[in-house]
Amino acid sequence: MITKLEKIANEQRAEHLARNEYKYTNSYGSTHPNALSTGDEKGKGQVEDNGQVGGLTDINTRVDNMGRNYYQAEKPYSASHPNALSTGDEKGKGQVGDSGDVGGLTDIQTRIDNTGRNLYKKVNQYSSTHPNALSTGDEKGKGQVGDSGDVGGLTDINTRIDNTGRNFYKSTHRYPDFEF
Predict the structure, then answer these.
(1) Least-confidence region, from 63-72, 114-123, 156-165, 169-178
(2) Domain residue spans in the chain?
(3) Element (H, E) at 112
(4) What distance in Å separates the CA atoms of residue 99 and residue 86, rounded to the nearest whole number?
(5) What is the dihedral of CA 10, 16, 19, 25, to 10 degrees?
């Protein structure tokens, strides 16, 4: 015996199928013309391996965009494309080979300008042992030379000498060992 819910479902099904253009004899599936991209607005699925995908508007928009695209199907953009490699123009940024420049023309020119103003070249690289890193009486070096050398630049050293000269405790009469 049919339940009340099944009876209502059968009535509703008949009513809804009457509005549905995909009947039992013309059921919708992956091979139905309205599921395939055949040049109308309905179908979106690809026909065969080299067919178009999308509705008519999708196809026309893609054709229009590809017409304006510099990288066509026959010359696609990839890692080896001239516009992907740094060859002296503004477009390419990728390094050519193991020792090529990286970046566009502006990047390369800026790097050349900056390295030209840099005091520390490849033959005189900055490090913890470079004269400009060590406190040798000039303003540049701040690091201690040896175990008993001064720390800081010339201004730092002179300020420290001046401050310790005005210090009540001095270096020989240190806190907390002082006597009044």
Answers:
(1) 169-178
(2) 1-48, 84-118, 124-166
(3) helix 105-117
(4) 11
(5) -50
| Token pair for 170 | 């001095």
Token pair listed for 2: 């049919």
Alpha-carbon distance 135 to 141, whole Å? 4
Name the helix (H) or strand (E) containing 19.
helix 4-19
Judge if pTM exceeds 0.85: no
pLDDT at 170 over 60: yes
Confidence at residue 180, expressed as pLDDT on a 0 to 100 scale: 52
One-letter amino acid of 175: Y
Contact 123, 136 (CB under 8 A): no
Residue 70 vs residues 65, 73, 76, 85, 86: alpha-carbon distances, Å? 10, 10, 9, 16, 18
Q: Which residues pair with 64 in a beta bridge?
A: none
Q: C-alpha distances in angstroms, 175 versus 62, 68, 128, 179, 180?
A: 84, 81, 34, 9, 12
CA–CA distance, 129 with 127 (Å, rounded to integer): 5
Residue 174 reports pLDDT greater than 70: no
